[in-house]
Inverse folding.
């Protein structure tokens, strides 16, 4: 960075490149100075030397000596020429004499004036006089935002000290930078208020004081605001103000932008704040921005703003083109104020790993109607592969579509683009290519329009009478031309290995018709011409040729063509041959790096010997010890010196340089010598903050603060000057430098005011003096309170806290200092807050609760027995913000030595930096309890013999840095922990992750093992069993693994003899340890049992075996599967299932080759309890697996079934029956073993005569018998699987209950009718075959309530009782019809009708009569009609009151009515008769017994109610018939 002010009238008109790289490197050694000498000469010496110069004799020609005529002629010729030169010299000498005389006269006058002034001062010194205002202050009334100047003239002896006050409060210019300016010139004292605001309205006073009295002058300043408070002030509102130009403003730059770093694609703003006087809202300062001394203009890529005390430059879309030195130039009334700083723009993330950076500075040259030459600068390649070429893209203005111009990458940074459309505008961009990929595209070029450049040359401008311009085209002068002339001057304007660009001059005359060109080529000297541009019409006098052969010379000629014809051929060009590229420049010469600042290095180098159209240089850097280089700049830099910014302070770097031209980058230069990043050596800056600490009437003790910049070398001396406040002459106080920042100045006059200034010195010399202190009166201090503390400094500045340190006051007062009070205020505020209510005895205080980023000031007041003393001078403002990269002190223990230490790694350091350690903020120095070592950026404080005396707060400050410091409080707990670790390191043991343990392996082997945290390859160990060392051998295998830290021993055959104690002893370097395992008693028995089991398991697995023993699963249809997995089987291996030793043969034989076998158990219930066994065997052996389904296992299976069934459960369904109302829940499977609970109104229901609970395999039901209103309400079923409960509900109330109850009453009535209707219970056959003359008896049992009526029919005609046919009905139960001596006429269809008021039944019998001797005819079955039912009959049969049958009820194959197998009570017929079956419905020969479990009709949407069939005998379950089946006929009693 560089800042300077240049008067505008001294500005040169010639543009120059100004950078911040000017470097002046000087070396000087300053020895211990014993005397400071003035380098100025006295006026008398200057005057004497000037007089001698004036009296110097003029040059005269010497007397001729005797010479020959020829010698004399030659001498005269030479003398003539010399004489002319001497004349010129004499004239110049005379001019110098006149100028010197004038200067001497001026010096003499000044000397005389000084003598007179001194005499006057000496005369006035003799007359004491109190202050008196010769010119008093006068009042002012000004507008807002305009300046005001108050001035006065005061005299007195001694010279008075003037202080300014606003409303009685001292005016402090430092509190408001740029606001107030206090001056004292030649006795005129002035106060300038730069920008007045309304709050500046007040009474201002100047108070002049000397030892003889005080004088005061007062004046009022009134600041007015223009009308319209919200509106800005216009020039017209400012009183008596003429038009102000921006260059008439007084501008002072304040916060300047620093060196900045950006990234491609990002944005950045450069901001500079300033104070403008007067600050007028509509007259901002005139500001100009430059990049590399080129004026910038506002655009989409560059945004500028000036106003509000800020000048801002914003680059919203950064590219490497934006890198460079930026300069802000602001015009002021004194000239210009300038500031410069460099902006670095690095490459964005590459599109592919290893791809190069984007090219830059893409520009178009030689623009024609269809041709443009595009050029660019190559990117820097540091660690990437070399660039192999470039692609050039074009895009028409207003479009986003980019078109690639070259098919193959061009190797140089220049490419001719042809084939453009006339009048169209284009942008161009470039992409670099290497072996890793293609770079991001460059920033697009400025817009260029394809136009004929020769068109403007064909215009002539003629002035008439000096006032009018007439434009004439060459066409008007040529006349009417049809065929154009031939082109001229055919030559090659660009010759490269890749291409050649032909150029020529357009024809003259040309003609008005549109013109194009035809080009021909031939090998030089052959005359065989060949046209080369056949594809397109060429309108520009440029054409690139790409396909020329290497080593051949060509000639070219051009024709002009228009609509009328073609011209003659031009004169052929000179022979043209492609040449090898001139190549990259040679490598730059020696690279020298020198110190610049704490984060930058100045690099210089020698230019290459062969420049070859040099574009600039790329500079690379590398940290010493690292492998990879990093780019220092990203855009070619034109000069041979460069400042590399952004380096790590204290780090060491080397640098190299590459030269750049359009062919690419040169070889790297040799590396520079390593250089540490440190500030350049210079004299220190001025000390500041001079404060008075004590005075005894003849001496004053003063102190000051260190310079902010030490100049790269330690400050080793301070020099103090003093002067009487009313004189201008300074006198030296000390000839020998003082090393401390405190000094007592002796031999002073009591009652006199003195001013002091201080200079600091280092190896580079004595720095600039400080500003004079405020006048200090030499008078003895007699107050009882202590004087001010001094040298306030800060340590450990963080975002919310800091530590304030100070030194004790020199003047203690009447008694010793007992403590200190610390006050704090925000910067700019006068409201101080006392941080500690009770005075602290130590000279430091940790301040907490700060706001991060806020700036504060502090002061300290000393306290003694008499009270609180005067406050110290205000501290420097400090911002509550940590230094970037700040690290804290680390407490630890050295892993090698076991030493306890505190360590700090500094984030910033320089060559002169030192680490200063303190305990409780008292410097440790040389102390036998600790040792301080420093290596690079790290300093370590090591405790020699740490104990409780070492507890406390330790802090460290890194000198010559921006406040790098830290602290750490060493507590007793932390020290004890570190001492334990220290002991462990000094008495090392091998740390173990796991102690000695054992593990049973396959085959019954036992592995004893332990694991260490870390083992070295040189570790040694031994196993000891029962006090006897065991080595690796037969039966034992001992080994270790360094990587995992495992040491192990394997015992092949573990027996009772192996009981005992096992120990491992380890030695690893200095460390050692041992671990033991006691394996006796029950512990040993467990291990032995496990080993034997594993041995047997190994033997078992030699043959077929179960890899997984029997286990159960439940399928989605609730089938229980007993499964197992087998291994080591073959085709001959057999598999058998058993239950309670009874073999089970499943429908599907087990397939052992599949590796798994399963046994399904459908409809699982309690009957399936028992022990199941699976046996696997072949010639190699046998394996058995048992599975006991009982107890908890049975419960687990039921729960697994309940889980699936509960999830599949349907909602409750209402079903009415003759007995009551039934609620049913369908599910995949139901068994009574499942945990099922029915609830009514949240109360559990127990099964009873009133509430019956039951179920089938597909559903669970609950029936309310004979329901009443009490049974209304909410019903639910809960199915629990042991983990989850599945609930289904039904609300049986309201209309639902009313409808159900009506349906129940209807079914109950229908069932009663069905129960009591008339019916044939049994005894009648279907077919009867009888021989003639025999007697036929048809007898049956009937039943009904009331007793039914019985009627017989023959062929549908009622049969009356006669002698031949006798009809009887006995006891209301037995009906019979007897035909005596049957004849063929008796053959036919007979039927019986049994009926009462509830209904009846109709049964048919077919009778066939044959004669004696005839073949008995085949019986023809009759087709009995379906028994009639009463009109009120329903599909639900009533419950039968008949007694239970002793035989199972068969299920008929055709009829849905089951038949009874009880014998008929009818008397036996004659032997000749052949009766059919005795049942009215023929029963099958093999009746199918009913299943054990009641099963409803499959897929029936309506559940089947409980069967009305009489209760069967014990042990036999009756099937539940579907609703459409009729009840079986009750048997005879």
């Amino acid at each position: 960075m560089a800042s300077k002010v240049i008067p505008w009238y001294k500005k040169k008109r010639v543009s120059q490149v100004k950078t911040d790289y000017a470097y002046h490197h000087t070396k000087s050694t300053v020895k211990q100075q014993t005397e400071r000498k003035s380098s100025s000469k006295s006026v008398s010496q200057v005057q004497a030397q000037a007089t001698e110069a004036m009296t110097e004799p003029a040059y005269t020609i010497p007397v001729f000596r005797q010479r020959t005529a020829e010698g004399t002629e030659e001498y005269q010729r030479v003398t003539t020429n010399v004489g002319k030169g001497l004349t010129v010299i004499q004239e110049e000498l005379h001019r110098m004499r006149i100028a010197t005389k004038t200067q001497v006269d001026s010096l003499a006058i000044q000397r005389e004036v000084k003598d007179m002034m001194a005499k006057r001062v000496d005369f006035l010194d003799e007359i004491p006089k109190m202050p008196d205002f010769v010119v008093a202050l006068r009042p002012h009334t000004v507008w807002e935002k305009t300046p005001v100047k108050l001035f006065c003239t005061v005299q007195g002896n001694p010279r008075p000290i003037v202080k300014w006050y606003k409303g009685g409060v001292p005016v402090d210019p430092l509190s408001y930078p740029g606001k107030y300016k206090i001056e004292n010139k030649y006795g005129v004292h002035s106060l300038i208020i730069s920008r007045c605001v309304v709050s500046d309205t007040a009474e201002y006073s100047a108070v002049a004081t000397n030892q003889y009295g005080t004088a005061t002058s007062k004046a009022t300043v009134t600041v007015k605001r223009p009308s319209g408070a919200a509106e800005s002030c216009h020039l017209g509102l400012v009183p008596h103000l003429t038009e102000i130009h921006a260059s008439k403003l007084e501008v002072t730059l304040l916060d300047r932008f620093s060196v900045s770093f950006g990234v491609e694609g990002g944005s950045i703003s450069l901001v500079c704040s300033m104070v403008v006087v007067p600050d007028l809202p509509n007259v901002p300062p005139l500001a100009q921005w430059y990049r590399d001394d080129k004026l910038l203009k506002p655009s989409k890529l560059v945004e500028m703003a000036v106003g509000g005390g800020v000048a801002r430059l914003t680059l919203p879309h950064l590219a490497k083109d934006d890198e460079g030195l930026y300069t802000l130039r602001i015009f002021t009334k004194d000239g210009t104020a300038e500031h410069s700083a460099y902006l670095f723009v690095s490459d964005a993330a590459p599109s592919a790993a290893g791809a190069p950076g984007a090219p830059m500075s893409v520009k178009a040259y030689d623009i024609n109607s269809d041709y443009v030459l595009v050029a660019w600068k190559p990117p820097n390649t540091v660690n990437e592969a070399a660039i192999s070429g470039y692609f050039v893209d074009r895009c028409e203005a207003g479009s986003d579509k980019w078109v690639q111009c070259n098919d193959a990458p061009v190797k140089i940074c220049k490419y001719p683009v042809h084939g453009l459309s006339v009048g169209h505008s284009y942008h161009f961009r470039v992409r670099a290519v290497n072996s890793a990929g293609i770079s991001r595209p460059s920033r697009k070029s400025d817009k260029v329009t394809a136009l004929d450049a020769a068109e403007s040359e064909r215009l002539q401008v003629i002035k008439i009478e000096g006032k009018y311009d007439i434009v004439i085209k060459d066409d008007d002068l040529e006349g009417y031309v049809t065929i154009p002339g031939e082109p001229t001057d055919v030559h090659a304007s660009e010759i490269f290995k890749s291409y050649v660009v032909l150029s020529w001059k357009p024809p003259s005359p040309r003609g008005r018709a549109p013109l194009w060109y035809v080009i021909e080529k031939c090998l030089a000297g052959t005359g065989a011409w060949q046209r080369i541009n056949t594809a397109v019409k060429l309108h520009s006098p440029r054409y690139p040729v790409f396909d020329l052969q290497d080593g051949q010379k060509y000639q070219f000629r051009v024709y002009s063509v228009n609509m009328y014809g073609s011209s003659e051929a031009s004169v052929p060009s000179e022979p043209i041959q492609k040449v090898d590229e001139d190549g990259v420049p040679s490598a730059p010469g020696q690279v020298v790096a020198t110190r610049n600042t704490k984060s930058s290095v100045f690099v210089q180098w020698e230019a290459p010997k062969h420049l070859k159209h040099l574009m600039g240089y790329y500079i690379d850097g590398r940290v010493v010890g690292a492998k990879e280089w990093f780019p220092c700049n990203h855009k070619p830099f034109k000069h041979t010196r460069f400042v590399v910014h952004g380096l790590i302070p204290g780090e060491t770097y080397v640098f190299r340089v590459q030269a750049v031209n359009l062919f690419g980058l040169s070889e790297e230069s040799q590396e520079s010598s390593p250089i540490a990043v440190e500030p350049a050596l210079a004299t220190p800056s001025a000390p500041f903050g001079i404060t008075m600490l004590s005075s005894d009437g003849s001496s004053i003790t003063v102190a000051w603060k260190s310079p902010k910049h030490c100049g790269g070398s330690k400050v080793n001396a301070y020099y103090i000057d003093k002067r009487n406040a009313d004189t201008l002459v300074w006198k030296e106080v000390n000839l020998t430098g003082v090393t401390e920042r405190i000094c007592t100045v002796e031999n002073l006059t009591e009652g006199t005011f003195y001013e002091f200034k201080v200079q600091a010195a280092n190896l580079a010399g004595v720095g600039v003096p400080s500003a004079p202190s405020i006048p200090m009166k030499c008078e003895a201090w007699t107050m009882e309170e202590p004087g001010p503390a001094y040298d306030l400094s800060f340590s450990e500045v963080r975002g919310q806290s800091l530590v304030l340190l100070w030194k004790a006051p020199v003047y203690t007062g009447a008694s010793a200092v007992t403590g200190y009070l610390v006050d704090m205020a925000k910067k700019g505020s006068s409201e101080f807050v006392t941080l500690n209510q009770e005075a602290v005895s130590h000279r430091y205080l940790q301040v907490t609760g700060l706001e991060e980023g806020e700036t504060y000031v502090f002061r300290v007041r000393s306290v003694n027995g008499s009270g609180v003393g005067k406050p110290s001078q205000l501290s420097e403002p400090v911002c509550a913000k940590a230094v970037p990269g700040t690290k804290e002190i680390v407490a630890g223990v050295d892993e090698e030595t076991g030493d306890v230490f505190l360590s700090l790694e500094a984030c910033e350091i320089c060559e002169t930096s030192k680490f200063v350690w303190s305990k409780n903020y008292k410097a440790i120095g040389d102390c036998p309890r600790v040792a301080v070592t420093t290596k690079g950026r790290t300093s370590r404080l090591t405790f020699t013999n740490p104990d409780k005396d070492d507890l406390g707060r330790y802090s460290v400050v890194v000198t010559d840095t921006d406040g790098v410091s830290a602290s750490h409080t060493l507590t007793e707990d932390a020290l004890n922990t570190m001492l334990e670790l220290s002991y462990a390191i000094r008495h090392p043991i091998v740390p173990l992750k796991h102690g000695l343990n054992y593990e049973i392996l396959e085959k019954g082997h036992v592995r004893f093992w332990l694991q260490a945290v870390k083992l070295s390859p040189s570790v040694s160990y031994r196993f000891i069993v029962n006090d006897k060392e065991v080595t690796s051998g037969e039966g034992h295998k001992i080994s270790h693994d360094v990587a995992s830290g495992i040491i192990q021993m394997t015992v092949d055959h573990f027996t009772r003899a192996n009981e005992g104690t096992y120990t491992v002893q380890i030695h690893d370097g200095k460390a050692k340890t041992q671990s033991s395992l006691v394996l006796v008693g029950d512990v040993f028995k467990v291990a032995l049992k496990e080993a034997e089991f594993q041995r047997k398991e190994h033997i078992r697995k030699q043959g077929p075996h179960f890899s997984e023993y029997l286990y159960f699963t439940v399928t989605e249809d609730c089938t229980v599967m007993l499964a197992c997995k087998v291994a080591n089987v073959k085709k001959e291996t057999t598999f058998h299932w058993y239950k309670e030793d009874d073999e089970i043969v499943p429908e599907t034989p087990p397939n052992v080759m599949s590796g798994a076998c399963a046994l399904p158990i459908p409809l699982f219930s309690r009957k399936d309890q028992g022990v199941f066994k699976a046996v696997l065997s072949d010639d190699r052996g046998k394996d058995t697996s048992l599975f006991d389904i009982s107890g908890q296992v049975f419960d687990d299976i039921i729960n697994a079934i309940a889980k699936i069934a509960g999830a599949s459960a349907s909602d409750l369904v209402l079903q009415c029956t003759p007995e009551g109302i039934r609620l049913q829940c369908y599910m995949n499977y139901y068994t009574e073993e499942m945990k099922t609970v029915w609830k009514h109104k949240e109360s559990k229901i127990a099964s009873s005569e009133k509430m019956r609970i039951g179920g089938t395999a597909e559903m669970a039901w609950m029936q309310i018998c004979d329901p009443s209103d009490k049974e209304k309400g909410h019903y639910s079923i809960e199915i629990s699987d042991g983990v989850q409960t599945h609930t289904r509900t039904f609300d049986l109330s309201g209309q639902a209950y009313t409808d159900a109850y009506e349906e129940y009453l209807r079914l109950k009535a229908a069932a009663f009718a069905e129960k009591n209707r008339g019916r044939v219970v049994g005894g009648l056959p279907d077919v009867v075959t009888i021989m003639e003359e025999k007697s036929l008896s048809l007898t049956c049992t009937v039943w009904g309530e009331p007793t039914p009526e019985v009627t017989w029919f023959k062929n549908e005609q009622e049969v009356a009782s006669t002698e031949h046919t006798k009809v009887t009905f006995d006891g209301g139960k037995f009906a019979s019809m007897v035909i005596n001596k049957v004849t063929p006429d008796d053959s036919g269809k007979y039927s019986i009708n049994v009926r009462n008021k509830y209904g009846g039944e109709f049964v048919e019998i077919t009778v066939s009569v044959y004669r004696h001797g005839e073949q008995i005819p085949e019986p023809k079955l009759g087709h009995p009609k379906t028994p009639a039912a009463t009109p009120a009959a329903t599909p639900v049969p009533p419950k039968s009151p008949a007694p239970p049958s002793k035989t199972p009820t068969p299920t008929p194959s055709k009829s849905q009515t089951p038949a009874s197998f009880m014998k008929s009570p009818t008397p036996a017929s004659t032997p000749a008769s052949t009766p059919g079956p005795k049942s009215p419905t023929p029963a099958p020969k093999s009746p199918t017994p009913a299943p054990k479990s009641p099963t409803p009709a499959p897929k029936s949407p309506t559940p089947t109610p409980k069967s009305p069939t009489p209760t069967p005998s014990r042990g036999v379950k009756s099937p539940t018939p579907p609703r459409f089946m009729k009840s079986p006929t009750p048997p005879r009693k």
